[in-house]
Amino acid sequence: MGKINLLSFEVANLIAAGEVVDRPASAVKELLENAIDSGADKITVEIKNGGTSFIRIADNGCGIEFDDLPTALLRHATSKIKEASDLDSISTLGFRGEALAAISSVSKIRILSKTQNSDLGAMLEAHAGQVLTHINAGCQEGTTVIVEDLFYNVPARKKFLKRDATEASYITSIVEKVAMSRPDISFKYIIDGDLKFITSGDNNTQNAIYAILGADVAKKTIKVSRASDGIKVEGFISAPNLNRSNRNLEIFYINSRYIRCGVMVKALEQAFESYIPSDKFPVCVINVEIDPLYVDVNVHPSKLEVKFSNEQVIFDAIYYAVRTALATSIERPMLFNEAKESIANTPFKALDREAPKNEKIVFDTNGNIGTENKNKTISYIFNEPKTEKQSPPTKITKIELPSDDDFVPDFLRKYDTSSTLKVSSSFSPIIPNENKEEKIEPKIDTEKAEIITEAKEEIIEEPKKQKIVPDYKIIGEAFNSYVIAELGDILYLIDKHAAHERIIFEDLKKKISESNPSSQMLLIPIEVSLASEEIASLNEYKQEINKTGFGFTLNGNIALIDEIPSEIDVGAGADAFFTLVSKLTDGKEATKSRYEVFEKALYQSSCKAAIKAGRIYDNEHIKWIVERTLTLDNIKYCPHGRPVAFEITKHFLEKEFERIK
Ligand code: ADP
Ligand code: MG
Fold it and tell me: What's the CATH number where 269 sits?
């Protein structure tokens, strides 16, 4: 070690520059933030060669006074804060007073600026932080910063840069995010002479999303808007038919500042669970408005990470905002929409049905829905109101060992090695049907076994909230998989497996919060042999499992199931139980809450219990699935995030067949 030196201003700046400006994208981010802080409503970003040879950011904001220009290049020179206490209430993106110092110390910079009050503009040129020129110059109001030859005096940093195209992609990612954070500003972005995008600045976030992420994403978004605990969550999330295989489009802002935030990511992804496949990621553009007092943006040199005084409040705000938006605004996807030019050109048109002109949607005193015209006449959407059947018809059913090998549940194939009775298959809601020979249905043998289906709880219906069974017609079933139903002016194509899966999942989930959930008792318990980790999961989640309607006792490593949920077919009961337990065991991750693990396992279990596509089922059961699908709002996507049903309107068909123009 030698003598201790006090570093020169230039060397100190070079070292500090490394923190703020590590690549062209971070320079662009800082300059963009300055432009936004200037109050501009028009900002242009232009880059060449991935920002290494040329970056230009022009704004029409407040400008910098002639005398202030050299000061702006100094470290800790800022007009945005004065005292330590100002750090508690930062409303600008910048405040550290380091960016211009850092950028100018590692490049050749030119700043042209004019304020409203001065007649002439000013120009300052500096190389490696050394001011070369400082003169009056004619220019427009606002500021233009041109950065050339970034890192020309720090070859070591230059060596670490990636290919120009890669550096350009990092810049694009930043410009996109910043541009979406401020839909009230018109951003223009040019790469190597090509206009990449331009946003309108009309203060409509969805228009900004459209300009930046494209029509496909913008069309498939749902609005999020929720305020609670002094936190406002606003923005857009993807509908379940839109997802990504990475987190690149999970975009969050705090008070319009783009940030990366683990808590928010977690809240978003948990809210999306059961709406999209588990290996996919949602898309979002969400801004959280919060009192700056509760966030510390001063924890990261480029202010990308923030600290909250109470993370749980932020988690809840995002989680419930997203969950509410998903539950209330998801519409059944309409078939053919995407192919239709006319609709694709109007990306923001709601995909749901609108009331005909001059008519409004009304509810009568019984809560039935209809449309009311000018003469106050109501036409009921579902015609004559009837009372909905809430559950499949339950009755005493006898069961036997399956005679058809195809019908042995997977679990038995794996576990049944003895000849004693373990389980059988039958569809509990089956009602005798004429097409017997067509159906894959177990024969009934009274001597082998018997089950009793009983509702342990009387369903107390609230008279006012009576649901209406819509006046639908089942047209048929295509490929033994897709039920075609007609209702009003809409034709529905319902994936019977996906719909059933969702119905079971929703019903079972609901039961967890009920005080006395229903189940069906088995006279002969089903045996399932389990691994020791599975026994541990079973004990851990005993309460939830019992609530869904599974009753069991443990005998060593064997679970004896004597009750199964009334929603689940007896034949599928063991498989559903086994799936639930094994997924509870696999699904445990440190990042997941108890409830999340259970919910996920439950929908995997629901999949096992649902009727299968490609098989023929009883008409009554198909009818019940159609009714539930048409009456329950949240049955639009199966728990894996696939659509449950598509809609085709009569209007669409008439147009396609050229009956109407
Ligand atoms: P900070 O943004 O943290 O204040 P910077 O080094 O980025 O620090 O900028 C220093 C100062 O230069 C700012 O506080 C501001 O007064 C001025 N400035 C920089 N860019 C602009 C701009 N585009 N328009 C107006 N003023 C600017
Ligand atoms: Mg700044």
Answer: 3.30.230.10
Is position 510 within any domain?
yes
Q: Among 78, 110, 185, 303, which residue has the most ligand 1 atoms within 8 Å of its CB, making it the best to mutate? A: 78
List the structure tokens of 122. Answer: 């000013």
Q: Are 169 and 23 within one domain? A: yes
Which residue lies with its CA nearest to atom 1 of ligand 1? 97
Same domain assignment for residues 545 and 625: yes
Total number of domains constituting the chain: 4
pLDDT on residue 405: 30
Residue-level pLDDT at 298: 61
Q: Could you tell me where the DSSP H helices lie in 371-471?
A: 410-415
Q: What is the pLDDT of residue 39?
A: 95
**Is residue 123 in some structural domain?**
yes
Q: Which residues of the chain are modeled with pLDDT < 50? A: 337-371, 380-465
**Domain coverage including residue 547:** 473-647
Ligand 1: residues with CB < 6 A are 30, 34-35, 38, 59, 61-64, 72, 77-80, 94-101, 143
Ligand 1, atom 2: nearest CA belongs to which residue? 94
CB atoms within 10 A of CB 555: 11
Helix (H/G/I), strand (E/B), else coil: 157: helix
**Tell me, what's the pLDDT at 58?**
97
Residue 138 lies in a domain: yes
- Nearest alpha carbon, ligand 1 atom 14: 78
pLDDT score recorded for residue 606: 85
Confidence at residue 195, expressed as pLDDT on a 0 to 100 scale = 93
Whether residues 143 and 31 share a domain: the answer is yes
Query: What pLDDT shows up at residue 618?
Result: 77
Side by side, the strands of the sheet bearing 142-148 are 130-137, 121-127, 108-114, 142-148, 54-59, 42-48, 186-191, 194-198
Q: What is the pLDDT of residue 15?
A: 65
Give pLDDT, residue 238: 93
Task: Mark whether 131 and 181 lie in a shared domain.
Answer: yes
Residue 633, pLDDT score: 60
Whether residue 217 sits in one domain with residue 194 = no
Check residue 353 and give its pLDDT: 28
Assess if residue 192 is contained within a domain.
Answer: yes
In this structure, the residue with its CA closest to atom 13 of ligand 1 is 78
Distance from the CA of 332 to the center of ligand 1, in angstroms? 49
**Which are the contacts of 609, defined by CB distance < 8 A and separation ≥ 6?**
501, 504, 567, 568, 569, 572, 573, 575, 576
Query: Can you give the pLDDT at residue 60?
Result: 96
